[in-house]
Task: inverse folding
């Protein structure tokens, strides 16, 4: 009897879960697959003036010369002052925000990578790979990969246009899903970034593709309307930027 009751309960639960699943149209899935984050960069040119704003609101401008990093995240940066031409070193812990420009070499590499995968043509904007815009960084205290002792880093914000509720930061050490292709021809599929750093409220975490479902409620669960429209059993990791954008819009609506 107990076994029958258990099986019945499991059947009901499975049916309920299935009933909650949302089926999206081809057009909707195409829209959800669009990559709305900015490109993540790992270099800074010394040909353009960078801007550093300290926590005491003082502003410094100069040419990026060197930095200290841990797993790609910035611990300190040295600039050549735009007026005195003297080097000044700043610790990440003292900086509130910073604006750098990517090198032409890295932008060329990003452009070549964009062209090499057919999937990018329908999901990304080429202009983000070769942007001349200033790249925003901000101070965050983070445990790298949720394992290391928390430290202050300067991290690139890759969703500055819609980060009022959830801020997403570039993970310089992130891997990508495997692409398929032939020698001399553009690849297709794959190329999906597997991890980011994400901040919601006072919590900053390293979010990996494999942990997306476990953290879905933390990211979006406080908006019932959103959860009904985009339940976690109906979405994919590929949709992350779209989901964060929609979550932000629906909370403002």
Result:
């Amino acid at each position: 009897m107990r076994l029958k009751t258990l099986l019945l309960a499991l059947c009901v639960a499975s049916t309920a879960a299935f009933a909650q699943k949302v089926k999206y149209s081809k057009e909707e899935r195409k829209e959800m697959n669009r990559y709305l984050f900015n490109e993540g960069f790992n270099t800074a040119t010394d040909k353009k003036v960078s801007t550093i704003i300290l926590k005491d609101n003082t502003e410094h401008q100069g040419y990026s010369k060197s930095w200290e990093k841990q797993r790609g995240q910035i611990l300190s940066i040295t600039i050549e002052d735009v007026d005195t031409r003297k080097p000044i070193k700043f610790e990440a812990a003292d900086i509130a925000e910073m604006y750098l420009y990517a090198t032409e070499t890295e932008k060329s590499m990003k452009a070549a990578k964009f062209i090499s995968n057919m999937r990018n043509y329908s999901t990304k904007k080429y202009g983000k790979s070769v942007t001349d815009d200033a790249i925003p960084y901000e101070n965050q205290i983070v445990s790298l990969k949720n394992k290391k002792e928390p430290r202050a880093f300067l991290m690139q914000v890759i969703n500055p246009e819609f980060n009022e509720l959830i801020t997403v930061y570039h993970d310089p050490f992130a891997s990508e899903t495997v692409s398929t292709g032939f020698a001399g021809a553009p690849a297709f599929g794959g190329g999906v970034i597997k991890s980011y750093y994400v901040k919601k409220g006072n919590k900053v975490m390293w979010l990996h593709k494999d942990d997306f479902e476990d953290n879905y409620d933390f990211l979006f669960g406080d908006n019932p309307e959103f959860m009904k429209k985009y339940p976690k059993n109906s979405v994919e990791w590929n949709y992350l930027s779209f989901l964060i954008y929609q979550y932000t819009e629906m909370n403002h609506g």
Remarks:
- The CA atoms of residues 142 and 150 lie 5 Å apart.
- The chain has a mean pLDDT of 91.
- The chain has one domain: 23-252.
